[in-house]
Amino acid sequence: MSIDTAIAKKVDLLTSSPARYVARSVYAGAYLTLGTAFAAQVGSRVEAIAPGLGAPVFALLFFVGLATIIFLGAELTTSNMMYVCFAAYRRHITASRAAALLAVCTVFNLVGALLVGLALSHAYVFAHMDPSHLAANIVAHKLDKSPTGWIIEGIIANFVVNMGVIACLLLKDATAKLFTLMFVIAIFVGLGTEHVIANFSLMSIVGFAADPLPEQFALVSVAQNWVWAWIGNFLGGGVLMGAGYAWLNSGPESYRD
């Protein structure tokens, strides 16, 4: 599927059936949170056995949530940043329509993350989470950064995420897509950078399950992280990858993706 075809489907669904677009956005938040919870739990268990290996395991398993979103056709804000900027550069979508699509998708990705985070707080494996859990440690480190750090790391994170998304558009084989996502997505996770929807997931899990909460965890800090990470993600995935690839593919030359 081309990017033009994909964005046309997204805009048509949002326009003709907003409830279905909302549902696909909620599913994306839910899928990513389930995948994040799985990766964090396995990583935490590995860390207890082999200190220092928990974070790399978490990074390598994190792709599960994103792969599920891609294969099951859910709507993820950070990949949609790339789609709408690509389409806006080519004048296939208005700025107002792009903004509406991203706003709806962001809000309902968060709803999906919150719902699953709340549900998982009642699951046995998360019912007794303390600050030593890998997920709680990751959240504490994220909330200890400055706005500049959140923006710069947000740029890096969504630049990498959309490397994987574009690769999946170009690849035809499902197995190739899985392996590509596993290692590409591990880049941004392993580097500890800021992906706003992944942060929705992590902070929902920790916020509902951890007792006590990490010292850095406060609603103001969480909200600031989400806002600055969203801006960084838009610059990295939207401007650099979306508009960047639109420019690359707009020339007269034969080398197009």
TrEMBL record:
Transmembrane portions of the chain: 21-42, 48-72, 99-127, 147-171, 178-206, 226-248
InterPro entries associated with the record: Aquaporin-like (IPR023271), For/NO2_transpt (IPR000292)
Location in or out of the cell: Membrane
Name assigned to this protein: Formate/nitrite transporter
Bilayer disposition of the protein: Multi-pass membrane protein
Main localization of the protein described in the UniProt heading: membrane
Organism of provenance: Corynebacterium felinum
Pfam families: Form_Nir_trans (PF01226)
Swiss-Prot/TrEMBL keywords: Membrane, Transmembrane, Transmembrane helix
